[in-house]
Amino acid sequence: MPDININGIPVKFPFPEPYVPQINYMSKVIESLKTSKNAVLESPTGTGKTLSLLCATLGWVENEKQMQQRCDEIDEADGASLSAMFEDENGACCDLNQIPLIIYASRTHSQLKQAMDELKRSEYKYVKAGLIASREQLCIHPKLTGKTNADKMTMCRSLVQKKKCEYKERLDSPLIYPILKSHENQILDIEELGNIGNKYKCCPYYLSKEMNKKPEIIFMPYNYLLDPKIRNANQIDLKNAVVIFDEAHNVEKVCEQSASTFITSTQIDTAIGNIDHAINKLNESGSRDIPIEIVRRLHTTIKALKEYFDDLTLTRTPINPTGSTTHPGDFIHSILKTVDIDDENVNCTIE
Ligand code: SF4
Fold first, then answer.
1. pTM of the full predicted structure?
2. CB within 8 A of 72, min separation 6: which ones?
3. Residue 236 Cα, ligand 1 centroid: separation in angstroms?
4. Which end of the chain is more exposed for a tag (fewer CB within 10 A), N or C?
5. In what order do the strands lie in the sheet with 129-131?
6. Looking at the predicted structure, is the pLDDT value of residue 206 above 60?
7. 3-state DSSP of 135-169
8. Ligand 1 center from residue 201 Cα (angstroms)
9. Is 167 in the pocket of ligand 1 (CB under 6 A)?
10. Which residue has better confidence, 18 or 58?
11. C-alpha 171 to ligand 1 mean position (Å)
12. 133-152 pLDDT per residue, tens
């Protein structure tokens, strides 16, 4: 299929004649990439926007790569100084030593799967694609089935550290490695990673990490991008990256969730029980590794928090059966202040 010229960039599109809305959409994508500007693009359902988005972005990246190659050739032929004079059509100097990584983020894994399926159907199916997913989706260890993601993380780390997870160990075996290598250039979604893991009895989670080395496009759920802790833990570098948020109207909700935390009465009761236990142990052993005054103070604070919540009156109505209320963000500070937690003592550390 011949390339289509969209906004000065050759784009491989699977159909000879894209519809006018697809051409307009791709043109806007390329305009924002060329000018390094953010774009909010909307297109009605069923107009093939995921395909248009992927083709336009990958066409632009391919063009960037070709410009890089031309720069390198000029460097080789005429010395480095000439490449600095090589300019793109916007008059910008060719400084393309870093080809941008495309990060494609969606809210759910099923949306990511759909986007990966579109990529597989496109002319760009040869690009190296990666996927970031958690152990919750990818762990196949039977002992971890049904555990929460947090538990899976803790148990997995411990097993891996002790070299006790046979699935992880098998991944590194010289017999399996070449078979896995043969999947290296495939675009694998969660289901396919799981199938490979189950077939060869090797860990799909670490397999996905292996496959994420040097991808050209990487798919991930929103929270991997939006939550700085998760982003840093996964070493996701946004510098020079093209970030695509699919269905971006969901971003606000995900940001809200990543900045929120839930504390249940049971958790508070458990915390009080654990602190009681710690105080007893400290008294029994006579140890002062942790000053007992600090532990007692923590006990008083958590108990005060429990009493505060127990005294709250909830107005339940048929429309609002849980009696939930909404307050401005700093309301939480006033609650914490009533139990003696404020900016000054929040960082109280054990010397
Ligand atoms: S290494 Fe893989 S299979 Fe083993 S516990 Fe961790 S995530 Fe599960």
1. 0.76
2. 83
3. 21
4. C
5. 129-131, 217-221, 102-106, 242-245
6. yes
7. HHHHCCCHHHCCCCHHHHHHHHHHHHHCCCCHHHH
8. 11
9. yes
10. 58
11. 10
12. 999 999 999 999 988 888 89
